[in-house]
Write a structure and sequence with these properties.
This protein is mostly beta strands. About 5% of the residues lie in helices and about 50% in strands. Among the domains are: about 100 residues, Roll (Ubiquitin-like (UB roll)), CATH 3.10.20; about 70 residues, Immunoglobulin-like (Sandwich); about 100 residues, Immunoglobulin-like (Sandwich); about 80 residues, Immunoglobulin-like. GO terms for molecular function: fimbrial usher porin activity.
Length: about 850
């Protein structure tokens, strides 16, 4: 059988076939054009101005032209399939054409089909008007519809910025979870699985643990059998006091049709409102229209707290600015415990553990809320026993606990919800509401609790968000919040209610004066309870883009918190001196510390690397922090070093390696760590061991089969459409690989076995003549396989003015060639079993009898 998806041709085959098809097309354009359009990717035309320049181009124009040319260093037009994203949300794959001079274009019908479900009716109408009936458009066309689109050549993706007021009120994952509307895909393997191994070893120059440390391995695995997933996470540290720690084990089953996830085992509870997320084991049912990723190194614990399972480096990013890098031990942390969080309206923590695994947690004071379509609901119910994580793994107690929430879209502008949780000592019930009004979005959360030892309490928070949209795509944002907690309030897991503030008020506003200048203000005031003093923090920020690659930002901060009252400044200068490298210098007045940091990224996929180096200096000490990460075909490699000077010397060098082994329906491969789903790609035996390259682009590729004979594509996300492209540059001459892509819609923790090439790899060339020996000129037809039981699709063929034809995608056996004359002219072609690549048929004569 012919495979579901057939890959692109080899390099030598492509050159020969261009010559062949050019000869066949000569004089046959009326017939060849529609057929070629069916067989080959559409060469989308590049958009260009039709007006001649009236004067010499300016230096700025020359710079822009040079930047465009850097998008495509090949010197020829190329067409890529890249992901289109709305922020960080994956929308779908987009064919993107990049001309030799760097002009971008894409099919307008594909753009409309992907973006329209995200927009309300007026916005869809504005987008249709902007497209103006054109078949291909550039990314800039969406600007007239109030949106922006940019292309990131390093990430190979298109990013859209859609203002919230243009979006339809819905949860964006509803459509991706609906298989019925997504077409046909390659089926995943019935039995598949993987094991990730992330290892690290440290060398400490000075300190109590001086010398080479014990290696640490973070292990996570998943096995999938016909929709049921068994997954496990553990830490192995040979030589440690507890050399093996199991983090969690569970069975997961996704009911995709009803958007439900069933879990049994060590649960990872999700909380709403004021709920905590207790460590527990039992069963759960969960519905969410966002992609779920249960394997984490840091677990959100509610509104402003989180738990680290491993020692980790934590980078603190406030309002898109890196302000701190801290090393934290395992344990529970509250964002408010850190003075850098005071007054900030957007706190992101980038957490990287000892083995190099990364996770990002976001704590927005004004909370990122999502409305649901009328009738849609999200919910979660988690029930079982408490299972706190100890040194050797979860400790399964006999103490019961339960937690759950339910949210439902009531109207286009109203979403309501309830939540609750309880154990043997604590009960908490809450309610939430999200209201889209004409002046902004209003959110309300309210909860009541009762703790046996301390009594009853309450908590409430009200937030308001408003976006002011202006011409040119600029917008101002206003955020307000009010929160109060009574002395005795606490969720499940509270040992001692620590509600030190009567109430807290937050405000934030940002304004863009132009494309180059913006300013923002945010503040927070907390009213202390009893002997605990009041606290307040305020920040005034401004940014100015001096040139296209040089920007300066400044923040003036005032903090009045227990033990500290000060005014300080944070000033930074960023220089993007190439597409791949940047330099950042900053001064932090809170510590009287100056920093200068350099980072660079080179390449895409296999063979790429990134490097980072930072030097900092304060009156008390100075330090160096640097790292290099390399992407290999079978592993991710990292080397980092930290060195402190002038104070207590502290030097640490870390080596990190991440790899995985995966299997799918009998195929096995080794590659980089798997993040959710994966695919094993191997060449058909007819390829004679030729190397298979996965996702080739002018900038690199993601994996290749190499000496093992299989490639592992490890970066597939569950319930997100993905197209994998393949090539075999060293395939036998004349080998026809086919369409060159596999279209996937991966289930949770799924694996694929994909085969590149097939028996249908032969190209036949020759000439057709009629019964009188005259050329059969300018006629189209089809080739049908005569092998009993064959289910292959007919192959379209056509002749040129002298009767020459080319038929690709054949395999050994008898084929019936039926040409579109009246009556049809029939030929028979026998492809010998020993055929490889090209077969020359000579002159074919009609033979209606088939003899």
């Amino acid at each position: 059988m012919r495979p579901n998806s057939r890959p692109t041709k080899g390099a030598r085959s492509r050159a020969y076939r261009r010559w062949l098809m050019a000869g066949c097309l000569a004089g046959a354009v009326p017939f060849a054009a529609p057929l070629a359009a069916m067989a080959e990717p559409i060469p989308y035309a590049m958009l260009a101005s039709t007006q001649e320049p009236t004067s010499a181009p300016s230096a700025g124009a020359a710079t822009a032209a040079d930047a465009r040319r850097q998008l495509n260093p090949t010197g020829r037009d190329v067409t890529l399939t890249v992901p289109l994203k709305d922020g960080e949300f994956y929308v779908g794959d987009m064919p993107l054409a990049i001309s030799a001079d760097g002009q971008l274009s894409m099919p307008s019908d594909r753009l409309l089909s992907l973006v329209a479900p995200l927009l309300d009716a007026p916005a869809v109408g504005a987008l249709r008007t902007a497209l103006a009936g054109r078949s291909v458009v550039s990314p800039e066309v969406v600007a007239s519809a109030g949106m922006t689109m940019t292309y990131d050549p390093r990430a190979l993706e298109l990013r859209m910025n859609i203002p919230p007021e243009l979006k339809v009120v819905r949860s964006l994952q509803v459509t991706p979870m609906d298989r019925m509307g997504l077409g046909s895909y390659v089926a995943p393997a019935g039995f598949s699985g993987y094991l990730n191994i992330r290892g690290s070893v440290d060398y400490v120059e000075q300190g109590f643990d001086e010398g080479l440390g014990d290696p640490t391995f973070l292990l996570d695995s998943a096995v999938r059998l016909n929709g049921l997933v068994f997954e496990n996470e553990a830490v192995w540290q040979p030589g440690g006091n507890e050399d093996f720690q199991r983090l969690g084990t569970r069975f997961v089953y996704d009911d995709v049709k009803n958007v439900l996830r069933w879990t049994a085992g060590d649960l990872q509870a999700v909380g709403r409102g004021f709920q905590a997320a207790p460590d527990m084991a039992g069963i759960s049912i969960f519905r969410s229209y966002s992609v779920l990723q249960p394997q984490t190194i840091a677990r959100p614990r509610g509104r402003e707290s989180f738990t680290l399972a491993r020692s980790s480096d934590v980078s603190v990013i406030l309002n898109n600015q890196l302000t701190r890098r801290i090393r934290l031990d395992p344990g529970r942390y509250n964002v408010r415990d850190f003075p850098f969080a005071q007054g900030a309206n957007d706190v992101r923590l980038v957490i990287e553990d000892d083995t190099g695994r990364r996770e990002t947690l976001q704590f927005n004071v004004f909370f990122d809320r999502s409305q649901l379509d009328p009738g849609l609901s999200e919910f979660g119910l988690f029930a079982g026993v408490k299972a706190p994580l100890l040194l050797d793994g979860p400790d399964y107690t006999e103490e019961w606990t339960v937690s759950g929430f339910y949210r439902r879209g009531i109207t286009d502008r109203v979403t309501l919800g309830v939540n609750g949780q309880a154990d043997d000592t604590t009960v908490m019930m809450g309610a939430e509401g999200l209201f889209g009004t004409k002046v902004g979005t209003l959110g309300v959360d309210f909860a009541l609790s009762h703790i046996d030892t301390y009594g009853s309490g309450y908590a409430a928070i009200v937030s308001f968000q408003r976006l002011f949209q202006f011409a040119g795509g600029r917008a101002d944002a206003l955020n307000l919040s009010f929160e109060t907690r009574s002395r005795e309030f606490g969720p499940v897991g509270t040992f001692f209610p620590d509600n030190r503030y009567n109430y807290e008020i937050g405000v934030g506003y940002s304004h863009a004066f132009s494309d180059a200048i913006y300013a923002s203000f945010d503040g927070r005031y907390s009213s202390g309870r009893d002997e605990f003093p009041d606290a307040s923090a305020y920040r005034l920020g401004m940014g100015y883009r001096l040139t296209s690659n040089l920007a300066v930002t400044a923040n003036l901060m005032y903090d009045d918190v227990p033990g500290r009252r000060e005014t300080s400044a944070l000033i930074s200068l960023s220089w993007q001196f190439s597409n791949n490298s940047s330099l950042r210098a900053e001064y932090d007045g809170r510590e009287d510390r100056a920093r200068i940091a350099y980072q660079t990224i080179h390449g895409q996929g296999v063979g790429s690397y990134n490097a980072f180096a930072e030097v900092s200096r304060s009156p008390d000490d100075s330090a160096f922090n640097g790292s290099v990460n390399y992407i290999a075909n079978r592993a991710e490699l990292g080397l980092s070093h930290f060195q402190a000077f002038d104070g207590p010397d502290n030097g640490r060098t870390s080596l990190r390696v991440g790899t995985s082994i995966g299997f799918a329906d009998g195929a096995v491969s080794v590659g980089r760590p798997v993040y959710d789903s994966f695919a094993i790609i191997k060449g058909h035996k007819s390829l004679k061991g030729a190397d298979v390259v996965v996702n080739p682009t002018p900038f690199g590729y993601t994996s290749n089969s190499g000496e093992l004979g299989t490639a592992l594509e490890t970066n597939l996300a569950a319930y997100a459409e993905r197209t994998i492209t393949v090539d075999a540059p060293n395939a036998p001459a004349g080998y026809d690989l086919g369409s060159g892509s596999f279209r996937l819609f991966p289930p949770y923790r799924s694996g694929y076995r994909l085969e590149v090439g097939s028996d249908y790899s032969i190209t036949a060339i020759g000439r057709m003549v009629d019964a009188d020996g005259q050329p059969l000129a300018l006629v189209s037809g089809r080739a049908v396989e005569m092998t009993p039981g064959s289910k292959s699709e007919p192959i379209t063929i056509f002749t040129n003015r002298v009767g020459r034809f080319g038929a690709s995608g054949l395999r050994p056996g008898r084929w019936r060639l039926e040409m579109g004359t009246t009556p049809p002219t029939v030929y028979y072609l026998d492809v010998p079993a020993s055929a490889e690549g090209f077969v020359k048929t000579g002159d074919l004569k009609p033979n209606a009898s088939g003899g």
